[in-house]
Amino acid sequence: ALEAIELDQKIELVRELDGHVLECVRDQNGNHVIQKCVECVPVEHIGFVVSAFQGQVASLAMHPYGCRVIQRILEHCSNGSDGLVDEILQSTCILAQDQYGNYVTQHVLEKGKAHERSQIISKLARQVVSMSQNKFASNVIEKCFQHGDVAERDLLIKKILEQTEGNNYLLVLMKDQFANYVVQKILETCNGQQRDALVSRMKGHLQALRKYTYGKHIASRIEHFSGDGAVPPGSQKKA
């Protein structure tokens, strides 16, 4: 109905959901109706949907259905969703590590404004090593490298390298089951200067890396970038 009926009928229909938004969002069927409202009804007529989320964005972003609705709101209500984004930014580190919240964080990194992306990256940079070893946050860190600018990537790389002395965090990341994909993404996305700095630091670990299941992927990458001309055997993808 929301796809087919006239606008004035749509407005009248969605008005009946006022006061029941969160109940619908948390429901396995109702969440699809709220998503459809967001997609099919102009933002000026569904302000009550966005307001229902205020103060609860983080907990709804970590909900299996709530995370979907939030992403629809971010896509279709860009003018009215600043408050929602602020709440996402306040909880960046918690959301990044959550099985549902990580998708909301990735959404802002991919489609949000530059200053929003920058805030997420600077927050995650402080914990980049532990985040890279987390099953869900490692995907968010990959997105930071994919969508960040040179300076933002530099900040993340420096955080990884500055802690390397004594505690070899770079080696830890390269042999970790999740973080090794982050390291592969860094090598794919960084500029020549950044790559040279990383590869020169990594070369010393080639022998050690070959002994680890996840390190092998990186070892072939290092050999490739060191200039032996071999193409790395397919960038390994996560299962």
TrEMBL record:
Pumilio repeat positions: 16-51, 52-75, 87-122, 123-158, 159-200
Family matches, as PROSITE patterns: PUM, PUM_HD
Recorded GO CC terms: cytoplasm
Single Gene Ontology BP annotation: regulation of translation
Protein's UniProt keywords contain Repeat: yes
Xref: SMART domains: Pumilio
Residues covered by the PUM-HD domain: 1-226
InterPro entries: ARM-like, ARM-type_fold, PUM-HD, Pumilio_RNA-bd, Pumilio_RNA-bd_rpt
Pfam short name (any one): PUF
Keywords: Repeat, Translation regulation
Gene Ontology molecular function, alphabetical: mRNA binding
Annotated protein name in UniProt: PUM-HD domain-containing protein
Source organism per UniProt: Aegilops tauschii subsp. strangulata (Goatgrass)
